[in-house]
Amino acid sequence: MVSDGPKLGIIGFGEVGYHMARGLKGEGLGWVVAFNNGNRNRPPYSDAFREYAAGIGVVLTATVEELVRGSDIVLSTVVPTAALETAREASPYLTSAHLFVDLNSCSPEAKEQGRDLVLTRGTRYVDGAIMDRPVSDEHRACIFASGEGAEAFHDAMAGSGMNIRVISGRVGDAALLKMIYSIIAKGMQALLLESFETLYRAGLDPGVYDGLNNMVSQSGLLERAGPIIAHTATHAGRRAGEMEFVGDTLLRLGVEPTMAMATAKRLTWCAGLDLPQHFPNGLPSNYKAVFEVVNKLVGEGQPRN
Ligand SMILES: NC(=O)c1ccc[n+]([C@@H]2O[C@H](COP(=O)([O-])OP(=O)(O)OC[C@H]3O[C@@H](n4cnc5c(N)ncnc54)[C@H](OP(=O)(O)O)[C@@H]3O)[C@@H](O)[C@H]2O)c1
Q1: Enclosing domain of residue 39
Q2: Which of 10, 15, 178 to mutate to test the pocket of ligand 1 (most atoms within 8 A of CB)?
Q3: Which pLDDT does position 205 carry in this prediction?
Q4: Lesser CB count within 10 Å: N end or C end of the chain?
Q5: 45 in Cβ contact with 109 (< 8 Å)
């Protein structure tokens, strides 16, 4: 619990802003203000929006200036496309005493540009990546933090219940990890969409599909990434061919095989590198050794994808 704690200003009072604020107020954080300037809610706010904020003890400010001047830590929780604009709007009022924490899911390059903007004011910048869902986890949602302000952000919020994991001092690292996570998480979502649509169209019940159940529950995907990559690289050509059949089958059932063909494309590329010939004693189960060779081959002119 933080009694008093740092003064927090939240720019963008949507799902993340509201739920983070609600959790932190529940922990006893004394000062939480918010500013919202979107398509639906903007100053002067509606009575309903003011009451929505007041209901959890949050005061809405009329301007960014008022929010920044009254805060120690500024959280940016707008939308990714507005992240840079938000840093630009806040920067004239920032000082070296502030921490500016950009929690928007932007690219590493966008975070670097945001850092450059606030750095002109001597402000420490935090590249923050929300890894859970604040709508259910509130302020306890895991946040990866990198950049020059990451340690200070972690320390300032100690005792608040926030789950801040400092990744590095380099802006962009947290954003990149979020993107890598999205490749897996959103890739899985897209895979489920495509595979279950196919089951549905074929008139099969997923309940009869024990193989899928076993694979998902026992996959230990990350722990086994090395062996899986090595095995995939060895059998990429055959698997790409199988995925072409999968694509044809889906089309026959009226399902657009977006994920299946993306998988086929990735495997075909991998097969074209002929990785096994670079490992006469068998592919290593260490993924780094595999990608060192891939990197070398791409450097020698093999296609990148
Ligand atoms: N939701 C999640 O679980 C989650 C997880 C990881 C990362 N994130 C990231 O967190 C950020 C916020 O997500 P969210 O789910 O809270 O989105 P959201 O519900 O759409 O909330 C964004 C809020 O920002 C306001 N806004 C938009 N542009 C603004 C601007 N220029 N200045 C001030 N306020 C502005 C919007 O106002 P209007 O509604 O009036 O347009 C809205 O209230 C996003 O960048 C997202 O990528 C979210």
Answers
A1: 8-176
A2: 15
A3: 76
A4: C
A5: no
